[in-house]
Amino acid sequence: MPSTKRKILVTGSAGQIGSELVVALRKRYGSQAVVACDIKPLGKEEGEGPFELADVTDRKGLERIIRKHGVGIVYHLVSILSATGEKNPNLAWAINVESLRNVLELAVRYKMDKVFWPSSIAAFGPHTPRTHTHQLTVMDPNTMYGITKVTGELLCNYYFVKFGLDVRCIRYPGIISWKTPPGGGTTDYAVAIFHDALRSGRYQCFVSANTVMPMMYMPDAIRATIEFMACPRSRLRTHLGYNLAAMSFSAAELAREVKRHLPNFRCTYKPDERQKIADSWPKSIDDRWSRQDWGWKPEFNLRKTVDDMLKNLRPVVAGSH
Fold first, then answer.
1. What string of DSSP letters covers 166-210?
2. Does 209 lie in the same domain as 131?
3. What CATH number has the domain bearing residue 207?
4. Residue 91 and residue 25 share a domain
């Protein structure tokens, strides 16, 4: 927990994770203790509290915010996702790597308490063992997004070894949320399917029916992030990314669960360029280090996730018509 003078900064606060993490952190530490920051304004649902409109690739602008608010902890969530990153790899590198380096440099300069940065299962690649993927294994991604995640993990570890900066990473699986629309990721079919099922009763999936990927429901992801950052540094054995897991399922298994609630729902499959990305990622993750070191334990499985998604998304979709 930050002191009264050292505030928390959340960059990328309007994104999928950021928009919900800001709410959770403000609930935990107080609305004035958490500064939200993004290149676009926050929505009303994020609540009251300080907000800065900024581009975090601009180091001087970021430094001004840190000085202005007396920031002691940063959750640096700015990122270009996998499918979007393949369309503009130069932008993905600039946003995902250069902005992280800005944060790490400023964290050292201002002697910050902690930095959090999200890695991803995209850091793995085609030669990574695909089932029960271990914490320490081959990491040879073939997407620019994945390359930036491996680079970022190595940068974070470097700043820990070289400067003693307490910088922490989680390798998130695909994240499912009803609060934010799909955002350009390969696992986003697992969000889009709910929207289309409720709107039209049908969905054309961009990965094949038997494609299995690790997934997590947003409440688990937010809780994991906060619990991880609250863990004493002495208990952490790595400052590379920690594997994190909750469930793995195929696109067809998800469609069947949706159909359990919506019997007339129909899902078809037309794999596109994202199929190749999905095929290079693990099917299941071994996260025993997270469970052993900081007590991670998921609460949501596939059935609970689908039940909660449809319950919360139904009134949102109905209100948008």
1. -EEEEEE-EEE-SSS---S-GGGHHHHHHHHHHHTSEEEESS-TT
2. no
3. 3.90.25
4. yes
SS3 211: coil
Domain count for the chain, please give it. 2
What are residue 204's phi and psi, to 5 degrees?
A: -100, 110
Distance CA 168, CA 229 (A): 8
Calculate the CA 319 to chain-centre distance: 27
Query: Residue 108, Cα to own-chain centre: how many angstroms?
Result: 24
Its domain, for residue 238, covers 7-174+217-243
146 with 271, same domain: the answer is: no
| Structure-token pair, residue 161 | 């070894």
- Say which of 29, 75, 145, 158 is annotated catalytic: 145
Instruction: Please check whether residue 170 lies inside any domain of the structure.
Output: yes
pLDDT of residue 186: 86
Query: Which residue carries 């059935």 as its tokens?
Result: 303
Same domain for 20 and 160: yes
For 33-64, how does the pLDDT look when each residue is reduced to its tens digit (9 = 90+)? 999 999 987 666 556 899 999 998 999 999 99
| Other beta carbons less than 10 A from residue 89's beta carbon | 15
- Is 158 one of the catalytic residues? no
Residues (pLDDT < 50) of the chain are: 1-4
Task: Mark whether 222 and 94 lie in a shared domain.
Answer: yes
Q: What is the pLDDT of residue 156?
A: 98
- Which residue has tokens 């596109």? 272
Residue 39 lies in a domain: yes
Q: What is the pLDDT of residue 43?
A: 65
Q: According to the 3-state scheme, what is the secondary structure of 10-63?
A: EECCCCHHHHHHHHHHHHHHCHHHEEEEECCCCCHHHCCCCEEECCCCCHHHHH
Q: What pLDDT is attached to residue 3?
A: 45
Q: Are 205 and 221 contained in the same domain? A: no
The per-residue pLDDT for 2 is 47
Sheet harboring 34-38: ordered strands across?
51-53, 34-38, 7-11, 71-76, 114-120, 167-172, 241-243
Residue 317 is predicted with a pLDDT of 87
